[in-house]
Amino acid sequence: MINEIATSEQIVAELKIIQSVIDVEMNEDIQEAIDRGNYCSAQLARTGKLLADAKIIRDRKLSSEVVTNLKKVVALPASTANKYVDALCFEENYLVNWCERVNRSCTHQLDWCRTLISKAKAEMTAFSG
Q1: List of residues 6+ apart from 86 with CB closer than 8 A
Q2: How far apart are CA 58 and CA 27, in angstroms?
Q3: What is the pLDDT at residue 2?
Q4: Which residues of the chain fall short of a pLDDT of 50?
Q5: Alpha helices (H) along the chain
Q6: Among the four 2, 106, 110, 113, which has the fewest Cβ within 10 Å?
Q7: pLDDT at position 68, please?
């Protein structure tokens, strides 16, 4: 079953929420690391879906714009044509880039949470042994 593809507006709304949470600096409190790790785990899957949706939106726009502007695109040198096509889809490219960055930020924050939790476990073992 194919999930419904989010609109650009829906993607932006979700990314703003996720971005506002991951922008908050985290301290080394273990419970905060666990909570942030749980949040980032869930958002990692969600941002992957948003990224896929953003790419579909971009590809549809790209296809439409290339067909509409085919005469212009064909007349340009290849490197210029690529830049022209990118310019036609600049908003969609921005959305894809933002999704990728938020997804990667969730990944990095999840790694940091694991590191903090591992450190706390090691310290507990050292103090109790």
Answers
A1: 93
A2: 37
A3: 58
A4: 1
A5: 8-22, 30-68, 70-75, 78-88, 90-128
A6: 2
A7: 87
